[in-house]
Amino acid sequence: MTTETSLSPLALEPSWLPVCTVEDLPRERGACALVHGSQVALFRTFDDTVYAVQQLDPYSGAHVMSRGIVGTRGGTPTVASPMYKQVFDLRTGQCLDPVGKDPRHLLAYAVHVADDVVSVGPPVEPGQALLPDAVERGTG
Amino acid sequence: MVQPPSPRELVVVGGGMVARRLVDALRSRDTAGEWAVTLLCEEPRAPYDRVALTSYFTGRDPDDLALGGQEIWDDPLVTLRRGVAATAIDREARTIATSDGRTLPYDSLVLATGSYAAVPPVPGRDLRGAFVYRTIDDVAALRAYVENLRDEVGRPLRGAVVGGGLLGLEAAGALTALQVETTVVEFASRLMPLQVDDGGGEALRRLIEALGVKVRTSTATSKIVGLLGRVSKMEFADGPGLDVDVVVFAVGVRPRDELAREAGLEVGERGGVVVDDSCATADPAVWAVGEVACIGGRTLGLVAPGYTMAEIVADRLLGGEGTFPGADLSTKLKLLGVDVASFGDAFAAEAGGLEVVISDPVAGVYKKLVMSDDARTLRGGILVGDASAYAALRPMVGRELGGDPAAYLLPEGAAPAAAGDLPDDAAVCSCNNVTAGAIRCSVTDAGCTDLAGVKACTRAGTSCGSCLPLVKRLVTTELERSGVEVSNALCEHFELSRAQLFDVVRVQGLTTFSEIIGRHGNGRGCDICKPVIGSILASLGTGHILEGERATLQDTNDHVMANLQKDGSYSVVPRIPGGEITPERLIVIGEVAKDFGLYTKITGGQRIDLFGARIEQLPKIWKRLVDAGFESGHAYGKSLRTVKSCVGSTWCRYGVQDSVGLAIALELRYRGLRSPHKIKLGVSGCARECAEARGKDVGVIATDNGWNLYVGGNGGFTPRHAELLAEDLDTEMLVRTIDRFLMYYVRTADRLQRTAVWVEDHEGGLDAIRDVVLEDSLGIGADLDEAMAGHVEGYEDEWAAALNDPEKLRRFGSFVNAPDQPDDSLAYVNERGQARPATESERAGGSLLIAGTTLEVRR
């Protein structure tokens, strides 16, 4: 587990919300957090990186993404919707396998881990590539 | 993508299959949102699968006839107006008047009004008990009439179908399914005069008469005689009359072109809106598609050319240049269980044709190929009784067959596989107009690697499915040809197949995913390989499925030991072995359901499903059930589900063995056994088979001397009857044989492969499996026995185990930062006294919502 030594300036902004510790998240599974009234799915991958995407599954309309199976496609960390098995890139929310449907993407949220506390930030603008944590740590 | 400020208005009149296809085609191509579509659908329901209408009689719900992808109606650019008919077209003003008194403007208008069932002008056609056969409502009215009348008169009913064509035989099948003694009356000299020749008609008559349906050909109905306003007798131009209680007219369809006529559009000599090969009428804003269109001087009553027309209009509306290529009138049907196919120049109308005929009245088969004069090129054919060669032959029409044509008419299995040589432009799927080339391309260029991928990519085989065997062969051939050995790799993380992986894990004694993927795979797995390994480890008895890292392998159902439902809530099914339950326990289930506000439904497996549980409620529900002596029913697992039983010799007058006792023993023996797919068992106490055991993976039927054992049955998408594995077994031998059969299946089947397909794919088929489990031909009998003994001994209730482990219970919080706060996205409405998930529009309305389960009222 990588530990950051200093708080990112972003984490001081009011839109950031501490939601749990890394240990609260089971490794290679997801959990849902309430962030300013929105449901956000958090995932802790094998290398202890934490990702956050919307909990709403765009294909079924149910709030279930955190219950999907975590894995990899190539080197990309992924989650598969537990409902109809579409696969998404955890870093960007991009749909990697729409299972025969039109691709629909997930909103990805910025995540910051400091002193073992996981904070969720604002949604990442589509196209704004990777989250800082994911870039620094890669996916192992 | 920029959407034009106001899309142009397209009005589609008609709500049939072709109208639906037009909407699908337009919406999938019109990515810029150029058109807003309004569909006027006279029937009170969305377009449905009219071709499958007769299946309504085999117990299906009208909803089962729904065409796939209902989310199209949620598209903001699509408006479906059910129960609204168009009453007049004003071409000048470009408006259309509707039956609910509105006037809709259009920029383009598509007539897809279809046909109505023709009724011949015979006296008495208006009597009660005379029906047509066209819509769900027709079929429902027919069924209600038959059932009520039978109750009233208290004797079996007699019925007649006027018309021995395709629709008439469908209707005869429907009457037969309603246990009506049926006569088919056909004016022509043979059945299905438009599709088959005299030889085929004769074969068809024999096959149908063998099913108890009487056939009168060359017979003209002259009058229907009524009694008290009700059908009672038919009279004919020649021959004796016929006493009947119900008459179905199925003499053909007529295009519903009245709107077009009144609007001054040209109609064909025999009806139908005249269109050119782009489906356009003389008015550039009006199009016609499907059965109402008169194209090339004729109307076409099949769905495939209708779909083609729909695609053409969608293309043209977006500026395309598509034209109608001419209709392929080939048909393949199963009527009353009899295969009939007709394709190409079936009647050898073209000069100089040679006919190759095989007629076997004993086997009930008639097959004819029409060849060119040099006997090389296939022109058409007729297949009655066995149409298995249809998929391979139809795409070959107009091409050299290669080899002896007669070889194609030999029984199934003996026919050569033509698929490999099929030319690229040969149409393989005529419903969706997919060529062999397109299928090959989806493999070579689009990178599809299996049948499912090719179906999604090309839509081949997604409508009627009759071409699927051919599609599969093409895909396999193409994969092999492109050098990819047809891989049996599980997924990108494992090169091994499930069976190989099972052996490796078992022999090397591996117990964790990290070890397994570290030694035999790469990456960190996915939703394909993780559940497979979770299942393998569980089958090998490595302990609780949620222990340590194993929890990460489970699909959500196994992960929370309940069944995920469409809204994200779960359902809970306690085990009720053999379907036997005491009143006290029944009351407990009722009380739990009441206290948690759960929707309850009896399942097909003789137990009770409790729906609408939120994730944080699951442990509380289990606690109540476990305290009352229940355990997990494993409804969520790829594992043993239930052992269904009839009441057996204990109570039944006819029972010869104690089927309930055996079912309970078997269910307790195999409960919790993880397997490649779900497993269902059934036990019937006598040959009447009330437990429907032959529809199960393992079916046991009592005989006077013991038990007969059947294997490889299933319901579902491709229903199959189990086949006899062994006869007259005593109970001990029966159990040992089932032990070995199941364990052998668990070890060697593919991922998500049910027993039916496993048996079929097993080298040597059922005979070879019989050798393994009864004769121990592989010498693994003792090993299989030991493995099953280990399973039985190691069984523990997963729910109780989780309740006793705080670490496992942690995962059942709703939110990691608010574990007890209910998910407020769940919303329910009351229906028939119980909660059900609210629909999108009910949610939007807001005020309809009630506290369905124990959720707070949302306002």
UniProtKB/TrEMBL annotation, chain A:
<dbReference type="GO" id="GO:0046872">
    <property type="term" value="F:metal ion binding"/>
</dbReference>
<dbReference type="InterPro" id="IPR012748">
    <property type="entry name" value="Rieske-like_NirD"/>
</dbReference>
<dbReference type="GO" id="GO:0004497">
    <property type="term" value="F:monooxygenase activity"/>
</dbReference>
<dbReference type="GO" id="GO:0008942">
    <property type="term" value="F:nitrite reductase [NAD(P)H] activity"/>
</dbReference>
<dbReference type="GO" id="GO:0042128">
    <property type="term" value="P:nitrate assimilation"/>
</dbReference>
<feature type="domain" description="Rieske">
    <location>
        <begin position="17"/>
        <end position="120"/>
    </location>
</feature>
<dbReference type="InterPro" id="IPR017941">
    <property type="entry name" value="Rieske_2Fe-2S"/>
</dbReference>
<dbReference type="Pfam" id="PF13806">
    <property type="entry name" value="Rieske_2"/>
</dbReference>
<keyword id="KW-0560">Oxidoreductase</keyword>
<keyword id="KW-0408">Iron</keyword>
<dbReference type="InterPro" id="IPR036922">
    <property type="entry name" value="Rieske_2Fe-2S_sf"/>
</dbReference>
<dbReference type="InterPro" id="IPR017881">
    <property type="entry name" value="NirD"/>
</dbReference>
<keyword id="KW-0479">Metal-binding</keyword>
<dbReference type="GO" id="GO:0016705">
    <property type="term" value="F:oxidoreductase activity, acting on paired donors, with incorporation or reduction of molecular oxygen"/>
</dbReference>
<keyword id="KW-0411">Iron-sulfur</keyword>
<protein>
    <submittedName>
        <fullName>Nitrite reductase (NAD(P)H) small subunit</fullName>
    </submittedName>
</protein>
<dbReference type="GO" id="GO:0051537">
    <property type="term" value="F:2 iron, 2 sulfur cluster binding"/>
</dbReference>
<keyword id="KW-0001">2Fe-2S</keyword>
<keyword id="KW-0534">Nitrate assimilation</keyword>
Automatic annotation (TrEMBL), chain B:
<dbReference type="GO" id="GO:0042128">
    <property type="term" value="P:nitrate assimilation"/>
</dbReference>
<feature type="binding site">
    <location>
        <position position="646"/>
    </location>
    <ligand>
        <name>[4Fe-4S] cluster</name>
    </ligand>
</feature>
<dbReference type="InterPro" id="IPR006067">
    <property type="entry name" value="NO2/SO3_Rdtase_4Fe4S_dom"/>
</dbReference>
<dbReference type="InterPro" id="IPR012744">
    <property type="entry name" value="Nitri_red_NirB"/>
</dbReference>
<dbReference type="InterPro" id="IPR007419">
    <property type="entry name" value="BFD-like_2Fe2S-bd_dom"/>
</dbReference>
<keyword id="KW-0001">2Fe-2S</keyword>
<feature type="binding site">
    <location>
        <position position="690"/>
    </location>
    <ligand>
        <name>[4Fe-4S] cluster</name>
    </ligand>
</feature>
<feature type="binding site" description="axial binding residue">
    <location>
        <position position="690"/>
    </location>
    <ligand>
        <name>siroheme</name>
    </ligand>
</feature>
<dbReference type="InterPro" id="IPR041854">
    <property type="entry name" value="BFD-like_2Fe2S-bd_dom_sf"/>
</dbReference>
<dbReference type="GO" id="GO:0051537">
    <property type="term" value="F:2 iron, 2 sulfur cluster binding"/>
</dbReference>
<keyword id="KW-0274">FAD</keyword>
<feature type="binding site">
    <location>
        <position position="652"/>
    </location>
    <ligand>
        <name>[4Fe-4S] cluster</name>
    </ligand>
</feature>
<dbReference type="GO" id="GO:0050311">
    <property type="term" value="F:sulfite reductase (ferredoxin) activity"/>
</dbReference>
<dbReference type="Pfam" id="PF01077">
    <property type="entry name" value="NIR_SIR"/>
</dbReference>
<comment type="function">
    <text>Catalyzes the reduction of sulfite to sulfide, a step in the biosynthesis of sulfur-containing amino acids and cofactors.</text>
</comment>
<feature type="domain" description="BFD-like [2Fe-2S]-binding">
    <location>
        <begin position="428"/>
        <end position="475"/>
    </location>
</feature>
<feature type="domain" description="Nitrite/sulphite reductase 4Fe-4S">
    <location>
        <begin position="637"/>
        <end position="775"/>
    </location>
</feature>
<keyword id="KW-0004">4Fe-4S</keyword>
<keyword id="KW-0560">Oxidoreductase</keyword>
<dbReference type="GO" id="GO:0046872">
    <property type="term" value="F:metal ion binding"/>
</dbReference>
<dbReference type="GO" id="GO:0050660">
    <property type="term" value="F:flavin adenine dinucleotide binding"/>
</dbReference>
<comment type="pathway">
    <text>Nitrogen metabolism; nitrate reduction (assimilation).</text>
</comment>
